[in-house]
Request: fold
Amino acid sequence: MSLTDKMRVLVTGGAGFIGSHTVIALEEGGFNPVILDNFSNSNKSVLNGLKSILGHEVVCVEGDSTNKETVRNVFDQYAIEGVIHFAASKAVGESMQEPLMYYRNNLGSLLTVLEVMEEKKVGLLIFSSSCTVYGEPENTPVTENTPIKPAASVYGNTKQICEEILHDVAAAKPFKIISLRYFNPVGAHTSGLIGEFPIGVPNNLVPFVTQTAAGLREKITVFGNDYPTPDGTCIRDYIHVMDLAEAHTAALSYIAGLRTSSFYDVFNVGAGRGNSVLELLNTFEKVNNQPVNYQIGARREGDISSIWGNVEKAKQVLGWEAKRNLATALKDAWRWQQHLSES
Ligand code: WQD
Reply:
């Protein structure tokens, strides 16, 4: 442990949507987070939000996680003892247009972080993976033993390759690593002071819903209502971002407490339930008393029909499970959107 009684944890991509909420959970969990972010897909205003919530500034280094000197300097300057690695490009559609950029950034940042960790004899790592590794599952809910499908996108393939890298590194070197397979993170911190801050037109459903409800967008298109689901629209496992954040502290505490020299495992991190697009829209309108103008349109290429997670393993092993429901997430998302509109 460091000189203070709190483990110093490097959070790469810590100014992003999930990263910033995880910084809150780390502080609440008795850790000492240090952010490294190049702000390529995040906004510096998030640091003000974090300061307002935490009551103090969070250490943030502006830099790129693919740059070995940058990462090495952060380790040296802040006596890093563990890492949560978020830094990656994550737009599925963009990844198909820019495969080289995605492989360079997503694989390069992980390899750089691992190499510096090995140099500095730091072995604790939590990796941000994704349920996208399952592709379109034969059965739902998916467990961690559900077969991994050939990736439908370059983005998904980078996550699969990163998981394989981590498995092999932990088999050969003294690393203790957990990959968390996220489902669909939604919502915002209850304060409304931090949240999802998409740059440009949102790719994901919930920021598009909140921007439409706020009048920033004329309407939202539901991408297809002819799927083999009860109401014809796609089903996903929407997990509150703070529940997801708390899964990181539970995973980090778990590997920090292990007495083995090395370890690797993967965990599904979702709410453990499925909701359709129309169910989400109707829930949003109901809990926020705010209409959302939508139309039914064509399917979006690459979308799968249904996926949600069996999250028993995280509950049994990590002692973690999601506590917040979809209604809470959509109330929190709306509060954040209103804060954005006022600022
Ligand atoms: C959810 C549902 C859309 C927008 C992706 C990545 C995944 C993870 C989360 C990173 C789908 C529908 C959406 C809209 C719509 N990202 N939709 N109209 O595609 O499930 O997952 O983001 O880790 O890896 O694949 O999330 O929010 O884009 O879509 O009807 O304007 O909402 O068709 O059914 P997705 P999403």
